[in-house]
Fold this sequence. Notes:
There is one protein chain. The protein is mainly alpha-helical. The protein folds into 2 domains: about 5-115, Cd81 Antigen, Extracellular Domain, Chain: A (Orthogonal Bundle); about 120-165. The chain has helices spanning about 5-20, 25-40, 105-115, 120-155, 195-200; strands at about 180-185, 190. Strands 1-2 form a two-stranded antiparallel ribbon. One of its GO terms (biological process) is protein maturation.
Amino acid sequence: VFFCPQMNAVFHSNIQEGIRHYYDDLDFKNILDFVQEKFSCCGGDEFRDWEVNQYHSCNGSGPLACGVPYTCCIRKVPGEVINTLCGYRTLDKERLELLDTIHVRGCIHAVGLWLKDNFEATLGIVCSLLLPQVIGLVMAWLYWQKLDEIYSKLDSVDFKILEMRDFSFGAVDLSGAGWCWCLPKEGGYIPVNAEEEEDE
């Protein structure tokens, strides 16, 4: 509720940018045509938003100048042949003059009213979009906790295991360690072959 005006402004800006490139972006064209026909609306905030398109601008000289696409037109008979120029010369007229010709209400308001009237469907759409995101965040957090636990176990050292009680260097097999001439010992170092040298 509090952010509704700001959201409408953002939607209006994006739709106007899409209308500006209406004939260059086929995907946006198909989406906007569907929305205008489905929700009986025209443009973003109102039908005059089509003025920003170079082909529909009243300053243009083509057959679409100062008009709106046929998807804005009111179809009086279902299934009738579509007149693609039904929105001809409508941008320079007043809203009351066009009530029987085109839909003058903007699509932002039309879709907003539909979402309010269909609260359950809106809630379902929002949940279906947000639920995978929430599940992904929870799984990532659990994975991070598991990794942190593993690394903390690797980094910790149990010094009780490392206590050297009744340890004798004589019990250590140093064969094959000829490259190592000394081993650490409290109070100094002892040569590896110290006993052999004494026997000789």
